[in-house]
């Protein structure tokens, strides 16, 4: 994994991945990874590609997926790829048809695809599409995929992993209304459905990640100097959950942030507008 700074080592403790347990847990299984052409999804595909599995990789960039497929299949895993923009209803329907053609059905779903957007409300007044397209990929697409696959997952006693964000547990930040609302919507839907899935024999895991150094954060200049988890580290967390079956995975320090959000909300909501006015926003 890339070298961490001192702060990053303190914030992101190492993840010990038992590759033997992982290989045993996923042997012979069909695993869907959305958003697999870069970042966390790509790195997870490489980790799982060392096991005897059938990987189903979906993302918009089919050419990149084919490159990943060629690399992984050298290690013995089987890989199928599907290029699709899951925000597009027609492409989403074609992808669902592809999933239902898989022999034996799907065993594990890693819901990782997502879109991040940072834009002030005053710059969004004529950009309603920012909100619809963010909801389309962060909420509506994963909901439709999981509704479509629930019966298969129940038959196979499968697992669903939601790659979420710590922001769903903290006070919302200015400029991130589209992103934070969409991630909170899916997190709430997922946690609401989880007991019903569990009753049907489907394991669920919610992984609340901090800032992760992926191509998605590059447009935000401020993030380039902030502590961030590596995509490889995040992939190891996800892979470990496939044999531990933990229902929730969070950074050790998130509880402190939740308490600060709970007790500091009033102060935050008074002081933040003043700070924004001083900045001329």
UniProtKB/TrEMBL annotation:
Residues 29-200 form the Ketoreductase domain. Keywords: Oxidoreductase. InterPro entries: KR_dom, NAD(P)-bd_dom_sf, SDR_fam. It comes from the Bacteria. GO terms for cellular component: membrane. One of its GO terms (molecular function) is oxidoreductase activity. The keyword Ribonucleoprotein does not apply. Coiled coil: none annotated. Belongs to the short-chain dehydrogenases/reductases (SDR) family. This is Epimerase. It comes from Brevibacillus parabrevis.
